[in-house]
Amino acid sequence: MSFKRPKGLDDGSHVVNNVYECECGNVWEDSWDSGCDDECGSCGADVSPSQTTDDPDCDCDACVAARLAANPPSVSVAARALIDAYGGDVPDWLRGEVAVLEAALEAEAAHHRAIEANRERDEA
Predict the structure, then answer these.
(1) pTM to 2 decimal places
(2) Domain boundaries in the chain?
(3) Which parts of the chain sit beneath pLDDT 70?
């Protein structure tokens, strides 16, 4: 299924993809903010969706919260996102915290490299 943002919906609105199957044989897909009825382009009948699927990339608050709850970011992912959000132009009031975060991320990476090196040595 392909998802497209329906015309007139705000960027933060929920998006679903509906599949419609009319009695006249016409089948089509359309994206809306809900599983709403649509008019058949062939015969004009009012048709309810036979299938409604949430857009996996929907950026509405509820979907973002559900994805975060299902896969919470690690501290290092959150720290990297904060650092990257400023694109190297970190405000003065945040520079000390960013330096600490970057040092912690590097220490974590070094720790993981050491674990991997030990694992490879043990397997050899």
Answers:
(1) 0.47
(2) 16-57, 73-123
(3) 1-12, 88
Q: What are the respective helix, strand and coil percentages of the chain, to the nearest 5?
A: 45, 20, 40
* Tokens matching residue 22: 């009319």
CA separation for the pair 51, 31 (Å, rounded) = 12
Beta strand ranges found along 14-75 (DSSP E): 16-21, 27-32, 38-39, 46-47, 49-54
CATH number 2.40.360 given to 16-57 = no
Cα separation, 62 vs 21, whole angstroms: 29
Please list, in sequence order, all residues whose beta carbon lies within 8 angstroms of the beta carbon of residue 59, skipping any fewer than 6 positions away.
11, 12
Task: Categorise residue 77: left if φ over 0, alpha if ψ from -120 to 50, beta otherwise.
Answer: alpha
Helices and strands counted in the chain (H then E):
3, 5
pLDDT at residue number 39: 94
